[in-house]
Write a structure and sequence with these properties.
The complex is a heterotrimer of chains A (345), B (591) and C (251). Chain A is mainly α and 345 residues long. Chain A has one domain (3-337). Chain A is built from 13 helices and two strands; from the N terminus they run H-H-H-H-H-H-E-E-H-H-H-H-H-H-H. In chain A, strand 1 (186-189) and strand 2 form a beta hairpin. Classes of the chains: A mainly alpha (345), B alpha/beta (591), C alpha/beta (251).
Chain lengths: 345, 591, 251
């Protein structure tokens, strides 16, 4: 391998790693606040790419129907909850929040899709559509059993992953999609070709990570989410509702996943079921950070991207084998260095 | 479930099951025989998961990889070298054992959610391996696998093959059921969330987890071998992580707490998928992978609404038999009780430091054979820490704990249990669904030696009878004879604490450590507990009682050691301690 | 009747039962806290004191009647109770260990800030005045505080929510006598600000000194109740909880 190839592989690895890092952060966030190991994050990433591809093709993306369907389900959950708790007076507000808002986003996107939107506007519509799925998923699948053990929540995640994969096929079809690059330009740096696309991906990731950092450090909402992650009982004692924290967390996480989907679109062809492997790679990163440390998770994700790039150069068929076998020692190390409580098992 | 019952369900249920099982291939159309075959294959794998996940609490999403190993081993050896499938079965089992040991040693020490994630990781790795290794045929797989030959009869007909699959499935059910009702079985049940308690009674939990893991992997491997010779063709797709998840889901839906849950789960999921695959496309007017959507939603709904699965619900409908009285049997051997010179237990300048906090600061005291020593002090004084230093739950920072002349400080809990120190827990640690008898029998774990194999084939019955009789005696001794067969979790807290004492007594201890046994007890229950302790002392038992309740210790102890802020505040007879102004000030809170 | 109760009782518990599975931890308890008073519940370890507070706070499912501010509170969530000024300082403090003292205090006013209540900064100044130690350490992580400072932070965080009824679970637990004295001085001082306090303590002597009214809880049931001075004079309480005449009780 010469320097040129080495530099290319590093560039590939860092670009992929930057996308995995967003995913890893989303996974750490979700786990820390809700204790959910969010396997289906990958499907959200795939939805992100496929939604953007749909808009590119001038079609109304399948996400519109999916979002509307989930809004109806979440709305009926809320009606049921209000009635069974004898709080009928709260119903209009809850319905507007859980069904009205997502339906409005779906309707607006459906209408906007009929125009020839500029690329940046398509990206905005994609982000709005896909992000709106996050809180609905939490409301429907996780909130009813938010107090269950980590393990039960993990199995629920697997169920959600199945459902979303199947729904992906239904709404987006079996064909893979690739979105055009943000920029086709490239330049030479010390004899190495650097693509502007890669730089954009890395820069976007960095910008998002900085924004997250500020959000958690400076805003009351960010602090409330951190507090919930640190001490759930303590958070309830100051009046932070776990339902609210969960819904907020899933909104943020879905936003990160939607960004990942938009960024990964030009790098690789995405199918309705591509998400699973992508999310597992994000997981490797997250787990390197013990599912608690954001910087370590981001570094871990970068490491996964690099390993993947080099593995695909040396033994492309065994790329996944290498990446996933690597998790096991990492898991072992994390498990041995974390203190556990027996009741969690 | 309850071990006293011979048949897990009523005779009619059993008869119906047998008739259905034998009758299907005789009369049903081909389609149903095929379904029956798959249900059998899946049941075998799910059975392993009932033991591993449902009973032992170790979640694995990766079982499909072991199924694949069994299938690919025989497919490759039979097609490439023409080796007999029966030899391949053995080779497959050996390879599976090796791989399971390797995976198990690496992943089973992991706790919490790390283990299931690791199983996903190696499940995926092995799946991609099958698809990328050239000699296994890549993604196309291996074709023209020969049919099985049994006593000269070629099992090409699926109707014959059905009997082979179900014979193996039933054998697996039988051995698994035996295993659960045995010495290792009781320990396996304790693995789920009660590892610390099991260690305190001498169970090597890490090793036992690996044994259960290998057992489950071997069942999966057998299922894979059967699958290869049924299909006579293998490719990687049925051994991926999705199938691994489905196996786990079968166990969960059926009811992962019982071996029958595996069969019920495999049946329900197989039938449901079949129906969904047939019905959904016509319903929706489009073809596609819709059953996976319904399947996924079903998983979420089951977990939200019926986390224990179908079996407990079915079991309630079935008649419960009155468990028979425990038959008398020869007692188990007692340990050497020779009195040695000096104190039974000698704590010398024990110190425990947590970060900057010194929880126990150079504490020294001794317990003499035949006495009840009370260790008391206000909340946060370090009593529980001191207790854990003696029982081995925490290592000493410095100092020494000497038991019968031997230093035992910082030894593992099971090594300390082996030397004759029995304990109870401040927060009751019983296995709630298990009977009082089985809970107490777990206390006698170190007094038997039946292993998994002996238990699975019911070769442990003589030892088992003696253990049960010993447990029944300990239960009588503490006065709970009327509750022998009740589920431990159904007793009130006061009685559960007494069950803990019975369990400690079943271990035949020289020294009994009681951690706040009176906490949360009502007045009458405290009186009963005090009477029991006096009775034990009269029989020669030595007891260390760590307690907060002053009134209680005054009545039952011979001597008291008072702790405050990790140090010894006073030591003496109860009457002296009651008059000690320093103790009163510290204990009752000065302002 | 309704309005009467609202005037005379801030918190009114009638026939409360709490069970963990089949084991009943609190059995048929009735108690009342009037506005601006300090009421204490004393009793030994495991008597159900913490369970009682958790139940009133809404963490546990209960049977029986809990009325707060004159309205039934049984169906309210923990967060809704906090919004109505019912605030608990738990035995385990439950601080946000990896966040600064200032952030912990700010989060104590979470609901007020979200409602747009600008007054929270004044409350913060009051809390710093009451606990100068917290002001000194405002940038330090809560997890690095000493036991006494943690208790102060827990109380300060609760005060940030502007409690109408403050429930304190074993505030003296594990603290050195000097600090216990300081904590009780602050509790007595809080009464003058109009906050009602429900105080659960094992340190019966200190609790009865500071409280107006007391209940004795034993194995999940109320054994005695009365004005604190009467309880302190009761021979049974004196023997069991105040250390006077222990020898007599032991025999």
């Amino acid at each position: 391998m010469d320097l040129q190839i080495f530099a290319l592989l590093v560039q590939d690895g860092v670009t992929n790693g930057a996308v995995y890092a967003l995913l890893a952060l989303a996974l750490v966030l979700v786990f820390a606040v809700t204790r959910v190991i969010w396997i289906p994050s990958g499907e959200i990433v795939a939805y992100g790419t496929l939604t953007l591809a749909g808009l590119q093709a001038g079609k109304s993306p399948g996400t519109v129907g999916l979002l509307a369907g989930m809004a109806v389900v979440a709305g009926s959950f809320e009606v049921y909850a209000c009635l069974s708790r004898g709080e009928a007076h709260r119903m209009p507000r809850q319905l507007a929040l859980w069904a009205g808002v997502p339906l409005a986003i779906a309707a607006a996107s459906w209408w906007l899709a009929t125009f020839e939107l500029p690329f940046w506007a398509q990206i905005l519509v994609t982000l709005a559509l896909v992000t709106a799925l996050g809180p609905l998923l939490y409301r429907i699948a996780y909130q009813p059993i938010a107090e269950a053990s980590v393990l039960v929540l993990l199995i629920v995640s697997v169920g959600v992953h199945f459902a979303l994969t199947g729904l992906g096929l239904w709404f987006f079809g079996a064909e893979g999609s690739r979105t055009p690059p943000f920029s086709a330009a490239s330049f030479e740096l010390h004899g190495v070709t650097v693509s502007v696309q890669s730089l954009l991906v890395v820069a976007t990731s960095l910008a998002l990570i900085t924004a997250l950092y500020l959000f958690f450090g400076r805003t009351l909402t960010g602090k409330a989410l951190r507090a919930t992650a640190l001490n759930r009982t303590g958070a309830r004692l100051v009046g932070i509702s776990p339902d609210l924290a969960g819904a907020l967390t899933f909104t943020l996480a879905a936003l990160l996943c939607a960004f990942s989907g938009v960024l990964i679109g030009p790098i690789t062809t995405v199918y309705y079921d591509s998400g699973f492997l992508v999310s597992l790679k994000g997981f490797v990163g997250a787990i390197i950070g013990g599912l608690v440390s954001y910087p370590l998770a981001a570094a871990g994700a970068l490491f996964v991207g690099l390993i993947e790039a080099f593995a695909s150069f040396w033994a492309s068929g065994f790329k996944e084998v290498i990446v996933f076998t690597l998790i096991v020692p990492v898991l072992l190390w994390r498990s041995l260095t974390t203190t556990h409580h027996e009741e969690d098992e | 479930m309850s071990s006293g019952r011979k048949l897990p369900f009523g005779a009619w249920g059993a008869a119906a099951f047998v008739v259905l099982l034998v009758g299907v291939p005789l009369v049903a159309p081909q389609f149903w025989v095929t379904l029956g075959n798959y249900i059998g294959l899946y049941s075998i794998v799910a059975l392993g998961l009932v033991l591993l996940t449902g009973v032992a609490g170790q979640t694995s999403f990766g079982q499909a990889a072991f199924v694949g190993l069994g299938a690919y081993t025989t497919a490759y050896l039979a097609t490439t070298y023409g080796v007999s499938p029966w030899i391949n079965l053995l080779v497959g089992l050996v390879l599976t054992t090796l791989l399971a040991l390797f995976n198990g040693v690496l992943t089973l020490p992991m706790r919490g959610h790390y283990l299931p994630l690791a199983t996903i990781a190696w499940g995926i790795s092995i799946y991609f391996m099958f698809g990328n290794v050239d000699f296994l045929g890549g993604h196309t797989g291996i074709t023209s696998i020969p049919a099985l030959n049994l006593f000269g009869l070629e099992l090409r007909n699926e109707r014959y093959y059905y009997y082979l699959i179900w014979a193996i499935a039933l054998a697996a059910l039988w051995t698994s059921n035996n295993l659960l009702d045995s010495r290792p079985g009781r320990a396996i049940r304790a693995l789920k969330g009660q590892g610390q308690m099991a260690e305190a009674f001498g169970v090597d939990t890490v090793r036992l987890k690996i044994v259960v893991f290998v057992y489950a992997a071997l069942l999966a491997s057998v299922s894979g071998w059967l699958y290869a010779h049924l299909q006579r063709f293998v490719n990687p797709s049925p051994f991926g992580i999705n199938q691994g998840i489905e196996y786990l889901f079968m166990a969960v839906v059926g009811g992962a707490g019982s071996v029958w849950g595996a069969v019920i789960g495999a049946t329900l999921i197989t039938l449901a998928k079949q129906v969904l695959q047939d019905v959904l496309p016509t319903l929706l007017g489009r073809s596609g992978n819709f059953e996976i959507v319904v399947f996924g939603i079903l998983m979420v709904v089951v977990l939200q609404r019926a986390r224990e699965g179908v079996w407990p619900w079915l079991a309630r409908l079935l008649p419960v038999r009155e468990p028979p009285p425990v038959p008398a049997a020869e007692p188990l051997a007692l340990r050497d009780r020779t009195l040695l010179a000096g104190p039974l237990l000698d704590v010398r300048a024990a110190r425990k430091r947590f970060g900057g906090l010194i929880a126990v600061n150079d504490l020294s005291f001794a317990i003499h054979a035949g006495e009840i020593l009370g260790l008391i002090g206000p909340n946060g004084a370090g009593k529980s820490t001191m207790f854990n230093l003696i029982s081995g739950a925490l290592p000493l920072t410095s100092g020494e704990v000497v038991f019968r002349g031997e230093s035992i400080g910082s030894r593992k809990p099971f090594a300390i249990a082996r030397r004759g120190i029995g304990r109870t827990f401040q927060h009751v640690k019983l296995i709630p669904q298990m009977s009082v008898l089985d809970n107490v029998a777990l206390g006698a774990y170190l007094r038997g030696d039946a292993g998994v194999l002996r238990a699975a084939f019911k070769l442990d019955r003589a030892e088992e009878a003696r253990t049960k009789a010993e447990a029944a005696r300990a239960i009588e001794r503490v006065g709970l004879g009327a509750h022998t067969h009740a589920a431990a979790g159904s007793l009130p807290l006061g009685k559960q604490r007494i069950v803990e004492i019975a369990r400690a007594l079943a271990a035949d201890p020289l020294l009994l450590l009681l951690d706040e046994p009176a906490a949360g007890l009502r007045f009458l229950e405290k009186q009963e507990l005090a009477a029991l302790l006096r009775q034990l002392r009269a029989a020669g038992m030595t007891v260390l009682l760590v307690e907060h309740d002053m009134d209680f210790v005054m009545g039952v102890t011979d001597r008291l050691v008072v702790m405050d802020f990790g140090e010894k505040l006073a030591e003496g007879l109860p009457a002296e301690i009651q008059r000690n102004p320093v103790v009163l000030e510290a204990y009752l809170g000065g302002i | 009747m309704e309005s009467d109760a609202a005037v005379t009782a801030l918190l009114e518990v009638r026939g409360l039962h709490v069970a963990y599975g089949k084991v009943e931890a609190v059995h048929d308890i009735s108690l009342t806290v009037a506005p601006g008073t300090i009421v204490t519940v004393i009793g030994p370890n495991g008597a159900g004191k913490t369970t009682l507070l958790s139940a009133v706070m809404g963490f546990l499912p209960v049977q029986g009647d809990v009325r707060y501010l004159g309205a039934p509170a049984g169906a309210l969530s923990v967060e809704q109770r906090v919004a109505r000024g019912l605030i608990l300082v738990p035995e385990r403090r439950e601080l946000f260990a990896a966040m600064s003292v200032a952030d912990n205090l700010e989060l104590g006013a979470f609901q007020r800030i979200r409602r747009g209540d600008r007054g929270w900064r004044d409350t913060l100044a009051e809390v710093y005045q009451r606990f100068p130690r917290l002001k000194e350490r405002r940038d330090q992580l809560a997890g690095t505080l000493s036991g006494g400072e943690r208790q102060m932070l827990a109380m300060g965080r609760a005060l940030m929510g502007k409690p109408t009824l403050l429930m304190l679970d074993e505030p003296s637990l594990g603290l050195a006598p000097l600090i216990v004295r300081e904590i009780f001085r602050i509790i007595a001082d809080l009464r003058s600000t109009g906050v009602a306090i429900l105080l659960v303590e094992q340190n019966a002597r200190a609790a009865l000194q500071v409280a107006d009214y007391g209940y004795v809880l034993e194995t999940g049931e109320l054994a005695l109740e009365g004005p604190s001075s009467e309880l302190a004079a009761n021979p049974r309480v004196a023997a069991t909880y105040l250390g006077r005449g222990v020898a007599a009780a032991g025999s």
